[in-house]
Write a structure and sequence with these properties.
The protein is of the alpha+beta class. It has a domain of 43 residues. The chain contains 3 helices and 3 strands. The relative contact order is 0.27.
């Protein structure tokens, strides 16, 4: 039987060339007026999924 991709995870994570997964940062949905512009600029950038969560993300995305 074929393994299905978790569609919610497929929209949130992308595989990198080194085998990791990149993701969008949290805390950018509301309350932006009180945040510093430097903080908002950092939050716009992508980051790498932590080592502890990489295995669960890999199980949800069997085809990369």
């Amino acid at each position: 039987m074929k393994i299905k991709t978790h569609r919610g995870a497929a929209k949130r994570f992308k595989k990198t060339g080194g085998g990791g997964y990149k993701r969008k940062r949290a805390f950018l949905r509301h309350g932006m007026r009180k945040r510093n512009q430097d903080v908002k600029r950092v939050l716009r950038k992508k980051t790498i999924v932590s080592e502890a969560d990489t295995k669960s993300v890999a199980l949800m995305l069997p085809n990369g």
